[in-house]
Amino acid sequence: MSLPHAILTALLEKPSSGLELTRRFDRSIGYFWSATHQQIYRELGKLETDGLIRALPAEQPSRGQKKSYEVLPAGRAELARWTAASQDPKPHRDALLLRLRAAAVVGTAGLEADLRRHLELHQRQLAEYREIEKRDFPPGRDGTEDRLRHLVLQAGIDLETFWTQWLGRALADVAALPGGEPTRPA
Amino acid sequence: MSLPHAILTALLEKPSSGLELTRRFDRSIGYFWSATHQQIYRELGKLETDGLIRALPAEQPSRGQKKSYEVLPAGRAELARWTAASQDPKPHRDALLLRLRAAAVVGTAGLEADLRRHLELHQRQLAEYREIEKRDFPPGRDGTEDRLRHLVLQAGIDLETFWTQWLGRALADVAALPGGEPTRPA
DNA sequence: ACACCTTGTGCAACTAGTTGCATAAACCGT
DNA sequence: ACGGTTTATGCAACTAGTTGCACAAGGTGT
């Protein structure tokens, strides 16, 4: 139940239309809580009927027109409640680690190329995060909002750093293995 | 679509009943692909009708009786195919990072305790991984199966190490902040 | 003026995962 | 022999997320 709260956060940062939200999810919030535009529109509808947000008055609220939303006091209260509430971490699921474990029984054939591809993806993501850091968090400023947001970005940077290092190691190991044959043939 | 493959991997490592699988998911595969017993039973049924696994013959296949499964050649082939196939990484979702970002707009009140709790959880998990490493991967042996499985465990260790460090830093930062008040009051 | 592309909003159907409960046998104390 | 706990299997309903498509308005080229 976090998507509504992701949207509330984004809207508090800046009132937006569905499409603007979608764009912002793609390059910011979506890094740790992704959502498609369909999800976002659906959720905006729910949040509006629940009285947590409202559409900003627009001239022609017809189809094909931008419709911006802002957070109402009830929405802010709900977000504060949710932020403070204790929550258990959800179990992670990582298909790549699973595949490596599978490869231990059925062989590593064909795996290497995809490991390399993942390595590149993570390298690219890491570079992007570093760009954002340089742009949005120059050495000087450290307001309390900035400090928290920087902390979040730092998590992203550290995670991508981990992945690139781990994938590098995994690739070296896989390359050093006998080959694609199962280690325990049927 | 990874649960069936997680199960196939587990069954190839060792044929098991539904409950045994559930237990093994809880302390091994589940670290990176968790599943409840309901999911597992449902999936075992599907895999059986699809001809990828079969129930090992048992005396009394009635309710309340253990029913073990083993992987058929078709199942092994499917797992090998899946392992080798290129897959895009699924977007992660991390509620804790989202909450931190929310806290930047609605304040950090109440957050600290839960950060501390998460830190402890990750420390405990890290300790458990280190135990497993000591037990299952002593310095000597390094068969190719072992090497791959060790790599997976290493990812777990490194990830938990990251989280404990990051949470430590986050706690320090949050504690140093003015208080629980919103940084940008309504 | 018409065809085409982009922007913006949205519904419907599907898939994967979660939660809550039901059932039955076996084992265990009294 | 009875009642409670553990082991073992499973169904049904729900929630969250994904995929595929539809539709309208506005701009752009011809």
From TrEMBL, chains A, B:
Start and end residues of each Transcription regulator PadR C-terminal domain: 93-172
Domain of life, per lineage: Bacteria
Residues annotated as domain Transcription regulator PadR N-terminal: 7-80
Protein name (record): PadR family transcriptional regulator
